[in-house]
Amino acid sequence: MKFVSANGTPAGPVGQGTWYLGENNSTFQREKDALRAGIQAGMTLIDTAEMYGSGAAETLVGEAIQGAEREKLFLVSKVYPYNAGRRNIFRSCENSLRRMKCDYLDLYLLHWRGSVPFAETVECMEELKRRGLIRQWGVSNLDREDMKELFAAPGGDGCATDQVLYHLGSRGIEYDLLPWLRARDIPVMAYCPLAQAGLLRRGLMGSPAVKQVAQAHQATPSQVLLAFLLAQEGVVPIPRSSRAAHTLENAAAAEVKLTAAELAALNKAFPAPRRKTMLDIV
């Protein structure tokens, strides 16, 4: 349950997100440096989307990867649902590749479910593979019932991942979606692994349980939140960072190995739901 680059190298356990990056000229260079620092630290999985800044994040990625060995990178982008049919998907993919200054994507995702039938999207994704424009395809923001419907479509079982919101304070996928994916050896790409800004994020960062675990490992609360996800089988977090120092902090979270007692303490402080909940989407 790993993401493997074109030369057979597994992508690092922590990837890089790009939502809201690349949209401001005054911070563009700093954000590019942050992505490059991540690549050098082994964070070779970089996730973006045509939606992010109307392509601005893809442009940032294209600049950041210049000089890097393309075959060692694992580049991911996402297509709008309304572009995920035969009429628009090939143009969308080619535009993403142009902005990212590369010849292929390692993974191309349906950003969320729309009106285009799954069967049509799958057929188009497979055509993109035959053309050599993508190596694999997957989905984002699909819950278990959606995934079951996808798999019922011809070729739907070729899905390589489901990218969903997942962090210590939002564990709804653990009830049924995550077990369903694990049973089929499909990894989860966890976006917003450090939560969004607001009360929930402050509650996580300021939690006595999180702070106690962080102190025990001489780590930061952010690293503990990432370490919690890394302790879950088949989960790859993709935190966003606009500063190199923070990116390197995220990369170092892979060295924080939580004990069973620490995981139990975090589970007690932020328990997983015991019933089905709506899939969190932002």
Secondary-structure topology with pairs:
Elements lengths: L27 H13 L4 E3 L8 H9 L9 E6 L9 H12 L6 E4 L7 H13 L6 E4 L3 H9 L9 E4 L11 H7 L4 E4 L7 H7 L2 H10 L3 H10 L4 E3 L6 H9 L7 H10 L13
Parallel strand pairs: 1-2, 2-3, 3-4, 4-5, 5-6, 6-7
Helix pairs in contact: 1-2, 1-10, 2-3, 8-9
Structure description:
This protein is α/β, with parallel strands linked by helices and 282 residues long. It has eleven helices and seven strands. It has helices at residues 28-40, 56-64, 89-100, 118-130, 144-152, 177-183, 199-205, 208-217, 221-230, 244-252, 260-269, and strands at residues 45-47, 74-79, 107-110, 137-140, 162-165, 188-191, 235-237. The protein has a seven-stranded parallel sheet with strand order 1-2-3-4-5-6-7. The longest helix has 13 residues, at 28-40. The protein is globular and about 50 Å long. The chain starts with 27 loop residues before the first helix and ends in a 13-residue tail after the last helix. The mean pLDDT is 97.
Write a concise synopsis of the structure shown:
The protein has helices at residues 28-40, 56-64, 89-100, 118-130, 144-152, 177-183, 199-205, 208-217, 221-230, 244-252, 260-269; strands at residues 45-47, 74-79, 107-110, 137-140, 162-165, 188-191, 235-237.
